[in-house]
Amino acid sequence: MLEILVVDRELLAIDAAGGGQTTARLRLGESVLWKGARGKVGVIITDQRVLAVATQSGSWQEADYGRTEVHPETALLGERVALAITSERVLGFNGGSANLAEYRLKPREQVVAARAGENVGVVVTDRQALGLSPFVGGFFAIPLSLGDQIESVTAESNLATLTSDRSVLIFRATSGTWEKRSRNLR
């Protein structure tokens, strides 16, 4: 379990199980807008950057915002994954390797849903679905068919599903793979 504190100008992540501590300093004029921890991951959102940390990691991972980028309001936390969505990027934190992954949104690409389960994260845009796993690093994408109507998106334990009017997409966090099953069209 991870605890995150903001003490004076220090960001402090305390590993309850391992006993370690990881610190970072706020920059001059930087303000914390949101912070949260769950299981082995923690995220802090400031007005200048997103910072993420995992238990047994030696440092905070960070992503600065671009000039025109709008910061996220909150992050989605699983036990070993975290997602933060800005106006221009999807940031995914893998608590297994303590790495921050980035997917840059294409022009006019819109995020329509995002979920985090214990060991899986999923972000759905109007063009594709992105799966995030703490077992295999980075985002794994599968394109959506033009005109797909999204009915539901779930993220539970090690599995994420996306149901549309035409198919069911299944993301398995343990392997980082997507499976597509067509629905019977009557």
Describe the structure.
By secondary structure, this protein is mostly beta strands. Helices cover 0% and strands 56% of the residues. It is built from no helices and 19 strands. It has strands at 2-7, 10-15, 21-25, 32-38, 41-46, 49-54, 61-64, 76-77, 81-85, 89-94, 99-104, 111-116, 121-125, 128-132, 139-143, 150-156, 159-164, 167-172, 177-182. The strands form five sheets. A four-stranded antiparallel sheet has the order 4-5-6-7, with no helix packed on it. The termini are far apart. 35% of the residues are buried.
What are the low-pLDDT stretches, counting only 5+ consecutive residues below 50? none
Share of β-strand residues: over 45%
- How many helical elements? 0
Compute the number of strand runs: 19
The chain-level mean pLDDT equals 95
Radius of gyration, in Å, reads 17 Å
Sheet with the most strands, sense and barrel status: 4 strands, antiparallel
- How far is the first residue's CA from the last residue's CA? 49 Å
* Helix-strand category: mainly beta
Task: Tell the overall outline.
Answer: globular
Task: Encode the helix/strand succession as letters.
Answer: EEEEEEEEEEEEEEEEEEE
Helical amount: under 10%
**Main β-sheet, spatial strand arrangement:** 4-5-6-7
Summary of the model, kept short:
With 186 residues, the protein is mainly β.
Defining traits:
single chain, 186 residues
Question: How would the blueprint of this fold be written?
Answer:
Blueprint: E1 2-7, E2 10-15, E3 21-25, E4 32-38, E5 41-46, E6 49-54, E7 61-64, E8 76-77, E9 81-85, E10 89-94, E11 99-104, E12 111-116, E13 121-125, E14 128-132, E15 139-143, E16 150-156, E17 159-164, E18 167-172, E19 177-182
Antiparallel strand pairs: 1-2, 2-3, 4-5, 5-6, 6-7, 8-9, 9-10, 10-11, 12-13, 13-14, 14-15, 16-17, 17-18, 18-19
